[in-house]
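Supplementary Note 3. Input sequence used for the single-chain structure prediction.
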Amino acid sequence: MSKLDDYAKKYAGIHTGKDPYKFRDSEETAYTTEKNRGLFDGSQLARKFTKYIDYTIKYKGRAITILDYGCGQAKQVSFPRTEYDNKTIFGYFDNMIQCYYCYDPGVPKFSMKPPLGMQFDLTCCADVMEHIPEEFIPVVLTEIKNYTKKNGAMLFSISANPAKKTFIDGENLHITTKSIEWWLNIFKEYLGDERAFLMFHTDDSRKGEGNDGNVWKRIHNSSHFKFKLEKGLYTGFV
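The predicted structure, written as discrete structure tokens, is reproduced below.
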């Protein structure tokens, strides 16, 4: 079993509550399966990427295809969410999502990768990359790029902070915490400059900018994304 497979097994344990793959919170209390139900539920994608999905639908003028890479439980597919006006993601976007493919090696029902050659208008990766061992980041980015159409886009949100939770053995759930410069360099190397959009979460010593000084640095924000669509600067996108 590779190290990546081992981590997938750990996350599968988090979702199923099987020992020894539960996790601990900051108070060193092992969570139960009941508590795990709200963890990695798909809410991060709903909170961070809704505008991007909306812009893509509007400027393509058709139903789009989405790959949710590292989807977790993906509850937004089947259950109403407040971010979607108490609708599912399909209802909120008025059936303008032709295909929504959920992939997560740590969730048994979503552990099958898209078929070889299948590509998507948007590949969304919400709070996933920091959970992947550093030595596998290039492999995962290359895979994400290959799943994304040449006139599509890749959306990422990444945290540089340690997680508040650890695996039951004490290892932090965020196993790859790097600077924004590190991520931008590796994005440039493996994804290029034009198709990857990043929101980056890091500790900040300035006060009044979120809980404990945490701020989201939207390096490529939704306004930038929309601007490129409107001005035709996003090569081949429309």
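The longest strand covers residues 148-159. Residues 32-36, 204-220, 232-238 have pLDDT under 50 and may be disordered.
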